[in-house]
# Entry
Amino acid sequence: MIKIILILVLMIGSLSADLTSDGVKEAKNGNFKKANKLWTKACDIGSMGACFNLGLLYNNGDGVKQNKLKAKELFGKACDSGHIRSCYNLGILYDNGDGIQQDKKKASELYAKVCDSEQNMGGCLNLGVLYSTGEGVRQDKSKAKKLFGKACDNGNNNGCKGYKILNEQGVK
# Structure
């Protein structure tokens, strides 16, 4: 019984990977409607990369009617499963209130998750901006400077600029 379950899990994983990569090929060729179908199937069987890609389609209106709420749902599903790029994009939606209710506190939580993962320094940069301005979090320019520094140390030029500005202001 355990062997059968293991085989099924491996087959589903392989199928979702194939559907996801086939969707990428279709999207690169500009066939977003076909990519949408493939990624929908892959997302439904657990490919968080496919859910992220679908979220991008709906966020940008590529091959589908632009729908920020649908993008939020797809990014949320993938983020909840640990897909960091989805968390970052979801944070941007909340931060900007782009098609969804703006929630700077939720954005800060998502950016913190992204920054802590060290997979995307944009999360550290954006969280630093929120700490610098006091939006969604208690204003703390020292914390902002540390976040900008972390982003800078990992190659984010805007993080370097933020760090420099706060350093020139005498922020410790």
In short: Residues 14-102 form a domain with the Serine Threonine Protein Phosphatase 5, Tetratricopeptide repeat fold (CATH 1.25.40.10). The two ends are 61 Å apart (CA to CA). Residues 2-28 form the longest helix (27 residues). The chain has two domains: 14-102, 111-172.
